Predict the 3D structure of the following.
Amino acid sequence: MLRSVGQTRVTGSGEDPRVAELRSAVSRLRRELAGHPAEFADRGIAEDELAAMDAMAVGGVPEIRRLRRSLLLIAGSIGSVSALTPGLTSVRNAVELFGEPNTGPALDHRTEPHS
């Protein structure tokens, strides 16, 4: 069966698989961060943004610009902690499943110029 552009498949539970992947990746990184013994200055920022991402995912399909903002804040907060890199990569990959933010035709680099 063909799907319309913009439609996504849902899991057996009715949840968008992108949302399920995001929730899983965020949960995994939250656990890794909680278990990491070292304290670092921006740990609270990372924890807050992971909680915000989880809340967005629970609410359904999150707003991509807000997801990307949270991802940047998390990466800036824990980017130098190499033990957390795999978890951060998983979150980044999950965010990328949602695609590019809708920037409109004038700003969208994928739009062909009109001749």
